[in-house]
Amino acid sequence: MNRYIIPALAMVLAGAAFAQQPGAGFAVVGVAASQTARINVVNEGVPAPPGQDGEVLPPCRVVLQFYGADGGLIKERVLEELAPGKIGYLDLTKADRPANEVRTPIRAVARFGYSGGANPPRALLEGCRILPSLEIFDAETGKAELVITEAKPLPVSSIAVP
Questions:
Q1: N or C: which terminus of the chain has fewer CB atoms within 10 Å of its end residue's CB?
Q2: Is residue 151 within 8 Å of 130, Cβ to Cβ?
Q3: Right CATH number for 22-153 from 3.30.420, 2.60.290, 2.60.450, 3.30.450?
């Protein structure tokens, strides 16, 4: 009987972790001097119906970040309120990277979600559903050379979203 309780508990805990997920990150990619990396996010959340009294949709805050090989932050953009249906992005250009590198390894991160202690308000979960992607494109032509849509959830921690 105990063998069924542990998997069920693991599923409940996984659901709780998802509700409090602080964002998603992508695998490390190399960016050549002639390329630009872009983190894209779209809020696929559902806005509160017009005229609905009571529940106010909290702002959906998203922080887009690029990290270098040493783990240091290279560039960051804070989107204070990404409304449902809206898109945000952050570009990492040649000018943002170390001057003499032909190819720069980077990691892209999108931080979002609920990081409070109690259960998140329903409106937050419905109005803040972030779908991130990472693309690498030729800086001169704008032609996409790589698009990654599979991001991995970041570990839940006690660190608040900046």
A1: N
A2: no
A3: 2.60.290
Q: What is the pTM of this model?
A: 0.76
pLDDT tens by residue, 83-140: 888 999 999 999 999 888 889 999 999 998 765 556 665 655 566 889 999 999 999 9
How high is the mean pLDDT of the chain?
A: 79
- Quote the radius of gyration of the chain (alpha carbons, Å): 18
| Residue from 53, 116, 125, 55 nearest 84 by CA | 125
Locate 107 and state its tokens.
């990691």
Strand order in the sheet with 130-138: 87-92, 35-43, 130-138, 144-148
